[in-house]
Amino acid sequence: MLMASDSFPGTTTIVQSAAERGVTIAGAMVEQLGLADEMLQQTKVWRWTWSILSAASAAASTYHGYRRHGTVGAAIGWGLLGALFPIITPAVALAQGFGKRK
Questions:
Q1: For residues 98 and 71, what is the distance between their CA atoms, to the nearest angstrom?
Q2: Residue 66 in contact with residue 77, Cβ under 8 Å?
Q3: Cβ distance 36 to 30 under 8 Å?
Q4: How many Cα neighbours within 13 Å face the side chain of 6?
Q5: Are 63 and 99 a contacting pair, CB within 8 Å?
Q6: Which residue range(s) make up the domain with 24?
Q7: Tell me: the pLDDT tens digits for 54-95?
Q8: Within this chain, do residues 10 and 57 fall inside the same structural domain, yes or no?
Q9: Where are the alpha helices (DSSP H) in 22-101?
Q10: Quick check: 2 pLDDT over 60?
């Protein structure tokens, strides 16, 4: 049977320490590499940035969809697209003339 220590030296101690602390093996390996805090901080920053950008894009795109087409369905559609694609959708709205009728 192939053991973790056969393929990657030092992984046996990582696995043992993870099992003792009740942590997943992947989590223990990230901790061992010393990247856990840095990765967690970067993830939080990206998550907040993307959430704020997505919410602003959804609001602007909803406004544009309603003003341009005059229907609630278009506003909902534009709003969903703005939330999913927060960079592309407002760019398209600006190219169409933000909030201008057809």
A1: 16
A2: no
A3: yes
A4: 3
A5: yes
A6: 1-33
A7: 999 999 999 999 999 999 999 999 999 999 999 999 999 999
A8: no
A9: 25-33, 36-69, 72-84, 88-96
A10: no
Question: How far apart are the C-alpha atoms of 30 and 39, rounded to whole Å?
Answer: 9
Count of structural domains within the chain: 2
Do 82 and 93 reside in the same domain of the chain? Answer: yes
The span from the CA of 27 to the CA of 18, in Å, is 8
Identify the H or E element spanning 11. Answer: helix 11-21
- CA 78 – CA 64 distance, rounded (Å): 8
Percent of the chain with pLDDT strictly greater than 70: 64
102, 69 in Cβ contact below 8 A? yes
Name the amino acid, one letter, at 100.
Answer: K
Number of residues assigned to the chain: 102
Radius of gyration of the chain (CA): 24
